[in-house]
Amino acid sequence: MEELARSKLEPPKRLSELAARHWGELEAGTLVWDRPTAEVAALRRLTLRDLQAFYQVTREPFSAFYSISRHP
Fold first, then answer.
1. How many whole angstroms separate alpha carbon 12 and alpha carbon 50?
2. CA 24, 28, 30, 31 torsion: positive or negative?
3. Which residues contact 64 (CB under 8 A, 6 or more apart)?
4. What residues of the chain score a pLDDT lower than 70?
5. Which of 47, 67, 48 is nearest to 57 (CA)?
6. Which of 32, 29, 37 has the alpha carbon at shortest distance from 11?
7. Alpha-carbon span 55 to 61, nearest angstrom
8. Half-sphere exposure of 66 (CA within 13 A, CB side)
9. pLDDT of amino acid 32
10. Integer-rounded Cα radius of gyration of the chain
11. pLDDT tens string 16-36
12. Is the torsion defined by CA of 16, 17, 21, 27 positive or negative?
């Protein structure tokens, strides 16, 4: 997960990347300018148990989410 955190915190290489990020915030109306930092903080709080629970809810066959997502 540290690699994902590093990639999210990496500064944009082009000005257009930064502009796209800010326009996305404006269009969504969220205006969370430090979203990458907040996402990394949330990512670092995840535990193995959290990931296992997410897997059970979303990917195990016969779970409600799995059934809905697999069959339109």
1. 30
2. positive
3. none
4. 60-72
5. 67
6. 37
7. 10
8. 10
9. 94
10. 16
11. 999 999 999 999 999 999 999
12. positive
